[in-house]
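Chain A, query sequence.
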Amino acid sequence: MYYEIFLRGKTGAVIEFLNIMGELIIRDYRPEDKEEWLRLRVVSFLHTAYYDDVYDDRIPRDNPLIDLVAELDGELVGLLETEIDPDPESIFEHPPGLCGIVWNLAVHPDHRRKGIGGKLLSELENRARQAGITYLEAWTRDDEDVLRWYGGMGFEIKYVYLHVYLENEEHKGILKSCVKGLTPVKSFCHGIGVSASKLVKKHRVKRIHACNGMMKILA
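Chain A, predicted structure.
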């Protein structure tokens, strides 16, 4: 439970503000968390560049996970899913050793700026070191507040490419079907070495995101 207490003076001005938050628990994900985990992921991504990145089930991973959730008064308010990859196929240069690939990191919008993401990351780093992981890799789009958070947590951007969404007429001159009678209506493309400004000016593409590959070395 989260409380907000305001103390007002005679003029009605707020003279003190106090947040009281219940006990925050960082723990392992459990199978019974799945539905709440999926809902949390959706609402956390709602007003971000990943607003339509929605799944109705968790994606199976090929390798072991460090799978964490943040629980506050019996409710999930944060999640951090990281895969331990012994043989990462990264497109940027990385140090030798095990890689921790961050697949999902989210905090409920009502509980942001309370340090929950930082606590999840701190627990991940502790467990990662114990597992012999030498660095973390994460990918995110161009939400400025998210990029600032990662930067403040010690991540450095190593690679950038484009996520391009096409709809209806935007496909012309870019993408077409090789199957007669089958017409692309919506498409998602990776753009490497492609000019975003050209896509906008020449093809009038409306939705383009920069996808940032980041890395943090674990000392």
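The chain has two domains: 23-157, 163-208. Residues 163-208 form one domain.
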